[in-house]
Each structure stands twice: as structure tokens, then as C-alpha cells.
Write a structure and sequence with these properties.
disordered N terminus; globular; binds zinc ion; 10 helices; two-stranded antiparallel ribbon
Length: 207
């Protein structure tokens, strides 16, 4: 569904999370909505190489090693989803750290499976009120997020918002202001400038 002001680029609301590679997205669509997508991104798969970034693209491991690691990553994403219901926060954090370490032998830091587990780790840190830990993950996530998601993505806005609030809470006002302004700039285009939520965030800037 394209919307938003002309010239701002199209803003899409999506059925699925656009972070993931084409194959994952279409598996999801087939499972949940019974269709395959034929948008430009899905037919050209042009963002997939960056989303599946390798640690050392100049000297890549064998295709089989890459396939195996993608399979491992998809399994660990699923396993973590289930584990959230019964494992303790510290066990969950360990699961994130171990899988990031293992994937890091093949994948680069901008690989979306690495980012997925970093995002989960950030969530656990937030839950444990470990603000520094959450910030550390968030700072790693934001740049590749901005690259993988389409422009004016609310997922990116939401990450800037989290970062902004973490910086503010940790008395890093300059970085906090910058991050909150980035969030607002995206939300103004995605939601429209007079959305109530934007006013809320602007209030946080004035404190
Ligand atoms: Zn698509």
C-alpha cells in the first residue's frame, strides 16, 4: 500500500518484516497469507547479498558452508522464538551471544541473521534494565538496519527512538537529541507530521 506525500518516496506498509532475505519473506507470506510476493524487491532480490553479508567476501567459504550456516541461523531464530517462553533472561542472552559468535565465523556484522540475534539480545538487556548493554547492541544495529529496510521504515524509526531514550537515560543528551530527531524525521513522513505520537516524542526532546 503506497502512501505518503509525493516526492517523499513511497511509504509501504508491509505484511511482513522487510529486514529478511527474499526466501524467508516469501516463506512467511506463503505460511500466513497464502501468496508469494512479486514486488521489485522480491523479483530482483537485489538486497539479498547485503542482507546475507559474509564475513570475508573476498575469500568466501564454500556454498555448502554458507547454506549450512543459513540453515543454522533460521533454526536458531525459531528456537529462540520458542525459548522466550521458558528460558531465563540470562539463558536467552547466552543463546544470543553463542549464536552470534558461531554465525560470525561465516557472516558479517551486517548480516540480517546476526542483526536478528543482536536485536533479541538488545530486548533481553532492556528487560533486565541493562541500559549500557542494550545501547551497545542498538548502536551496532542501527546503521545496517537503515541500509536493509526501505526508506522511512518505522522499524528504523523505532530503533532510533529506543537509542534516543537510552542515550537520554544515560545522560548522553547530545546523542539522545540526535537520535530522537532521526526518529521524528522518519515518523513525520510515515505517519504524517501531526500524528499524536510525534508530539509525544517532541516533548521528550524538550526535557
Ligand atoms: Zn515483495
Amino acid at each position: 500500500m503506497p502512501r505518503g506525500p509525493p516526492g517523499a518516496g513511497q511509504v509501504f506498509t508491509s505484511y511482513i518484516d522487510l529486514l529478511y532475505p527474499t526466501e524467508d519473506r516469501n516463506d512467511r507470506l506463503k505460511d500466513s497469507y497464502f501468496f508469494t510476493c512479486d514486488c521489485k524487491e522480491c523479483t530482483t532480490k537485489q538486497k539479498d547479498p547485503a542482507k546475507l553479508e559474509l564475513r570475508n567476501p573476498g575469500d568466501p567459504p564454500s556454498p555448502q558452508t554458507i547454506r549450512n550456516m543459513i540453515q543454522y541461523a533460521r533454526n536458531v531464530v525459531e528456537e529462540f522464538r520458542r525459548a522466550k517462553h521458558y528460558k531465563s533472561p540470562s539463558e536467552l542472552l547466552e543463546m544470543c551471544e553463542l549464536s552470534i559468535e558461531k554465525m560470525g565465523t561465516v557472516f558479517g556484522e551486517n548480516n540480517v541473521y546476526m542483526l536478528h540475534m543482536m536485536y533479541q539480545a538488545m530486548g533481553v538487556c532492556l528487560y533486565q534494565q541493562d541500559w549500557e548493554g542494550a545501547l551497545k547492541y542498538g548502536q551496532k544495529i542501527i546503521t545496517p538496519y537503515s541500509k536493509h529496510y526501505p526508506p522511512y521504515s518505522l522499524n528504523v524509526a523505532s530503533m532510533w527512538l529506543k537509542l534516543g531514550r537510552l542515550y537520554m537515560g544515560l545522560e548522553k543528551k547530545l546523542a539522545g537529541t540526535k537520535a530522537l530527531k532521526k526518529a521524528i524525521a522518519i515518523m513525520e513522513i510515515a505517519h504524517g507530521a501531526d500524528h499524536y505520537y510525534i508530539a509525544e516524542v517532541k516533548k521528550e526532546l524538550e526535557q
